[in-house]
Amino acid sequence: MVNRHDGAVGPLSINGRMFIQGEDTIMAYDAYNGLFLWKRSNPETIRTGVFFNNSPGNLVASDDSLYYMSGDKCFRLDAETGKTVATYNLPEGMQEKHQWGYIDYQDGKIFGTATIREEIEKKLRRRGKAAVDNTDAIFAIDVNTGKLAWVYQGKSIQHQTIAIGPDQVYFIDSSITSEQRADILRQDKSDLQNLTGKEREIAEDRAKKIDLRLAVAVDIKDGKQAWATPVDVTDCSEIGIGGGRLTLMYHNDKLLLCGANANGHYWQQFMAGNFSRRRLVALSAKDGYKIWSKDGNYRHRPIIVGDQVLAEPWSYDLATGDQKMRKHPLTGEEVPWSIMRSGHHCGMISAAPNMLMFRSGYTGFYDLKTDSGTRHFAGHRTGCWINAIVANGLVMIPESSAGCVCLFSISSTIVLEPREPRNDWSIISSVGKVSPVKNMALNLGAPGDRRSASGTVWLSYPRPRPSRATSLDLPLDIKPKFESSDKYNSVNTRANSIKETETGWLYTSQAIGLSRCELPLIGKDEQAGVYNVRLHFAELDENVKEAGQRLFDVSIQGKTVLSAVDVYAESGGLRTALVKELSGVVVTDNLVIELTSQSQSDKKSLPPILNAVEVIRVSEGK
User: Which residue in 13, 270, 385, 579 has a CA-CA distance of 20 to 30 Å to 62?
Assistant: First the structure.
């Protein structure tokens, strides 16, 4: 396999087959059982630098064929055997000085571009790898007849801006007329008059460095221009470190322009606001009319998932540009939807309609349907570009950690199939104020966060911390103090059935010997609140075999509210849920909970236990 940092072309999968590029080969496998199908040597055509240099890929596939380009030719291979079925040349007049630069396939046609050889050779000598930037023409070839369908001659077309729709081919040409430029500048000056403060300052700066391009659509059948319109793409690309070049995507009669920034290491710069001006522009695919534009403040190359633009860590409505919102797990206020990748998080996000795949330390995934947070498949890592492919009803992750020195135990291709849903541990992300708290649910000692069937978000404590404290985890400090050295304990949720509850997982972890904690509920200058407090207990210690072995008192806000709590006796035995609810607790800042072991004359009591705490605001305080 190609070294992970070389930025190789991502794998492809269609019709039950998976195609992968190695250092000097193309390989094909059965996606469902891993059976090796064929291998073809092509050392001269492997394309790297895809995410560092924004070079286009060199492979496309149909149900029965794989296409790859080499020099001035494109080869069609039988997907089952790897044998050459056909060879396609560049259009006449381009073969001598050009080579194939871009390739795509749809409905019996391959689409390509011709790039000047001299330009390619200069970049090869300078970088030691292929890096194809732009072209002045795009064409289509009928794969069955081998005949040229059409050629469209442009000026300067960047490969990243080519997108294929059902009926048209879209791209950005860098050339516009002086009249078109003047029209946009006049419109910008008119809009500027209505702005004040920071908005006006940013608009004036953009006017000075305005980036105007020509958005073009041509008919997919004959290559005739359907429409062309100038568009302002200022700050859509090259903003901040790893800013990325301009790219274009098509979905559902809409075009999205943004930056193809692909390096996933820049959380610190994101948190510092360096990407706040990264812009998103949406056009109508029917006529190029601008539907909306906005500063997206995104960290990584956006993707379109269903009707949403996932511009990490945010999500925007493709039709309107409105930012997706959700309720904050503590305050209940509407805050921007966000996703967090903990640990090392290089590489692109790939997606299916209801799921995201990415690197998050290990291989990570996100269930969009349940919106239940980031989860992990441990012991394995994805690559530095795109290599988690969702197709054929599977998730296919070809090995791409070549050259990695980290200790990942599974250095091989992983293919995952669907299974029955289960609510596993995750990491919940959220932004915005954390007070005043409307509902706080803490699962002490839990290995992760979890959303219950009722919708309550149970936050683990201690909070799961990313290896780099620069992401959007939900920080929380309850200042715990312990009377013993045990602190936290967790047992397997599937092997330990908890009785008397529908949320058994809530009781499979606990704080042992906790003597005091302070739950921050009310911030400075915020109104006091009245809360109901629920304390959740379960005895997990197999050494507890009778009543009286563990006795403790509970105080809230300095007042004893429970005396001689005996979880084993009151719940009815081991692994049985016990809930104590206390009403009408007035809180002006922090909710202080204290647990104290009861002294016994004949034997020492085991330290207090507490599995979970839930506080619910019921009214305003006086």
Answer: 385
